[in-house]
Amino acid sequence: MESNIFEAIQQYVYYDQLLKSTPDKIFPLLCPKKEYDWIESWKCDIIFSNSGFAELDCVFVTGLPEDTKETWIVDIFDKDKKIQFARFSRSRIIRHSISLTDNKNGTTTAKWEQTITSLNSEGNLYIEKFFKIEFEKRIKALEKMLNYYLTTGKMLRTNNESK
């Protein structure tokens, strides 16, 4: 008899962004509804929110064509300091935290942290082959988009930055 025992793996990654504004201006933008203002490819469906914006226990679903559908819940909401999400898909669970530190010079350090745990062999493959590289690539892109929005008030477009 062949044994098919699944063994989950877990990985922690982080990236520090340097953002050109203060936490009180940045924090409201870390919201599934407000991300439409600065992330061109952003798509989500808000399932539950009393205010219509990010708040404790807000639930939303993402799933761009190239990504796996994920259900997110806000499980920490510390205004202007930290927001944390638990993200669930069929192959993995991700704890996704963003902590803001005011540098007292008009800039903020945003620490993006993710702990990912596989739920099956598909999740293991994602972690082993793609996760760390993709995470850093995406967070650097978000840093560029967010800084552009913070300094211009406009969304950074991939085809034409002046749109």
The name of the CATH architecture is: 2-Layer Sandwich
Under CATH, the homologous superfamily reads: START domain
Q: How would the global form be characterised?
A: globular
Strands, total number: 7
Q: Kindly give the count of domains.
A: 1
CATH classification class: Alpha Beta
**What's the rounded overall pLDDT mean?**
92
The order of strands across the largest sheet is 1-7-6-5-4-3-2
Number of helices: 2
CATH fold-level topology: Alpha-D-Glucose-1,6-Bisphosphate, Chain A, domain 4
DSSP strand content: 25-35%
Helix content: 10-25%
The biggest sheet, with number of strands, parallel, antiparallel or mixed sense and barrel status, is: 7 strands, antiparallel
Helix and strand run = EHEEEEEEH
Distance N to C terminus: 62 Å
Radius of gyration: 17 Å
Structural class label: alpha+beta
Please give the structural blueprint:
Layout: E1 10-19, H1 23-26, E2 45-48, E3 59-62, E4 70-78, E5 82-88, E6 92-102, E7 108-118, H2 121-152
Antiparallel strand pairs: 1-7, 2-3, 3-4, 4-5, 5-6, 6-7
